[in-house]
Amino acid sequence: MQIGKAVEGAEAGSRQGESAGIRANESPAWRAAYDSQAQVERRRSAIPRKLRKLGLEGGTTNVRILDLCCGNGETLDALYGMGFRELRGADIVIGPDLAADPRFAACVADAAALPWASGSFDWILIVHALHHLGPAERIRTVLAECHRLLSPGGRLAIVDFPNSPQIRLAFWCFRRKFWLFTPYLRYFGKLIQEEWCFLKGYLAEWPRVRVLLQAGPFEIETFHQEFFYYFLTLRKPVPAGGEDKRP
Ligand SMILES: C[S@@+](CC[C@H](N)C(=O)[O-])C[C@H]1O[C@@H](n2cnc3c(N)ncnc32)[C@H](O)[C@@H]1O
Questions:
Q1: Which residues line ligand 1 (CB under 6 A)?
Q2: pLDDT averaged per 10 residues, the chain (length 247)
Q3: Which domain holds residue 137?
């Protein structure tokens, strides 16, 4: 099964999405913290467990997967290790290492306007990135894009922060530099401070975002919530009388 070809030539290999006419919201300080080698390695080791929670284990590996907002490609790398081969990534910023990695096709693209034909994917993942995509109206557009790109029966899998009292308290502490006892907590606190400008809006708009996720065009397949993250897998319904073509 082939991944659908990009409708428009998406620019790959550019470090900055701006060169493709797309503006990244993340500050250079956020990117420096996020890209640090120690944190890349730490995230890499955590990804397989997250992918299992989303339901990406035990089924066929003959599926077309888009990692939307793929960052440095750590999730793509983990998927490759699990045996998946039809892997694409899209992000507003694609670094040279990911652009040159022959295992994946990663392109610079805005999540609200993606360059593939309808029905091109069986799975779309948004890992730790939905809160970067606000406000809610924009998230509606992103979800509509995902719906368009998925085949009937295809899955949209999301990992992100829940808007729980615990997470609000944790963020409050991080922003005031409480709890920053270990290098990891200092790193996480730095990220929260740097992305607070859009994290704040995402949490405030969570009631609207939750309705978009729960009562939008998708069916909920699985939902798990932990202290820091929720794991949500949505399914694009198969039209009445239609055939679930997903392997
Ligand atoms: C917290 S990082 C998550 C990256 C990756 N999914 C991971 O788990 O490591 C959020 C990513 O969203 C990307 N991003 C932000 N706005 C975007 C947009 N409008 N379209 C595509 N990617 C976007 C950022 O460039 C960044 O790589």
A1: 24, 26, 43, 69-71, 74-75, 91-93, 110-111, 127-129, 132-133
A2: 35 42 71 80 89 93 97 95 97 94 96 97 97 94 98 97 89 81 82 84 93 95 93 94 61
A3: 17-162+202-235
For residue 133, the number of C-alpha atoms closer than 13 Å in the C-beta half-sphere is: 25
Q: Closest Cα partner for 54 from 128, 120, 133?
A: 128
Assign 109 to helix, strand or coil.
Answer: coil
Nearest to 112 by CA among 136, 94, 139, 152: 139
Count of structural domains, the chain = 1
- Here the tokens at position 236 are 């694009």
Q: Is 101 within a domain?
A: yes
pTM: predicted TM-score of the whole model, two decimal places: 0.88
How far, in Å, from the CA of 139 to the mean position of ligand 1? 13
The answer to whether residue 132 is domain-embedded is yes
32 domain residue, yes or no: yes
Q: What was the pLDDT predicted at 89?
A: 98
pLDDT of residue 42: 81
Please state the atom number of ligand 1 nearest to the C-alpha of residue 17. 25
Nearest CA to ligand 1 atom 17: 92
CATH code (residue 77): 3.40.50.150
Residue 30 has what pLDDT? 78
Residue 192 domain-assigned? no
Query: What's the CA gap between 132 and 134, in Å, rounded?
Result: 6
Expressed in angstroms and rounded, the spacing between residue 53 Cα and the centre of ligand 1 is: 20
